[in-house]
Write a structure and sequence with these properties.
Elements lengths: L1 H13 L6 H39 L13 H4 L11 H4 L46 H7 L8 H14 L1 H4 L30 H10 L13 H20 L1
Helix pairs in contact: 1-2, 5-8, 6-9, 8-9
Length: about 240
């Protein structure tokens, strides 16, 4: 009110012809309206700023693991499919007609809902070298493959460790075919320190570990190539020890 009276007095001095009793109330109403219009945007901006600050303050949580209020859900739950997360793209193949569908159907390795994609035909994993021999080409592998590792104490110890983990349960710790599970097989696992296995070349033994044969499954996924060659060295040591007895 003081501001309005001050403005009115200043204008009263500038426009004495309007300073009659009839125009005094009109001038005051005009000045009140002008002052109100000038203060409304400022008040609205102040209220909005106060609301935003309070909302952001109360949405933060400094206790426990609760994440507070989520204003943008895409930042909380990214659209990219995480490992072991259900994927709506592959669920399209299993859901009935009429449900909310995504951008299309994708065949997955783990079935509907799985995020594991079937790799394109002919694709090769990074840092992976495809094995060039088929299961029936054991003799060819024996002729063309040679053990690249030197026969050292460390290599033999590494081969012994890997042999005892993966091979001894069937072939026995002495590679004589008397492993802990050998009796459960209809045909006992072969003796690797005597018989035909003694004449196998290093490449053929490596091939059989990689591809498998008969009841023996492939171990390419479990044993790295260098460890397979270390096993070959250790098996040669077992064969030499048996021959000397």
């Amino acid at each position: 009110m003081k501001l309005i009276n001050k403005v009115f007095v200043s204008n009263h001095a500038l426009f004495p012809e309007l300073a009659t009793k009839g125009h005094e109330k009109t001038l005051k109403k005009m000045f009140r309206l002008q002052v109100f219009k000038s203060f409304v945007p400022f008040r609205v901006i102040s209220w909005l700023s106060t609301f935003v600050v309070l909302a952001m303050t109360f949405s933060c949580n400094y206790r426990g693991n609760l994440s507070g209020i989520h204003w943008f859900l895409d930042m909380h739950d990214n659209l990219a499919v995480e490992a072991q997360e259900e994927d709506p793209l592959t669920l399209d193949l299993a859901k009935p007609t009429g449900w909310w569908k995504s951008s299309g159907t994708v065949v997955s390795w783990g079935g509907p809902g799985s995020s594991i994609r079937i790799p394109p035909e002919g694709s090769v994993p990074r840092n992976f070298e495809p094995y060039p021999y088929e299961e029936s080409e054991s003799d060819l592998a024996g002729e063309e493959l040679a053990n690249p590792l030197p026969r050292t104490r460390n290599i033999l110890e590494r081969g012994q460790k890997e042999f005892n983990i993966y091979c001894s349960v069937c072939h026995g710790r002495l590679a004589d075919g008397h492993g802990s599970v050998a009796a459960r097989f209809p045909t006992r696992p072969p003796n690797l320190v005597a018989g035909p296995a003694r004449d196998f070349k290093d490449g053929k033994i490596f091939h059989l570990i990689t591809i498998g044969r008969a009841s023996m499954k492939p171990f390419a996924a479990q044993i790295q190539p260098a460890d397979r060659w270390a096993i070959v060295h250790y098996l040669r040591a077992l064969q030499a020890n048996t021959a000397n007895q």
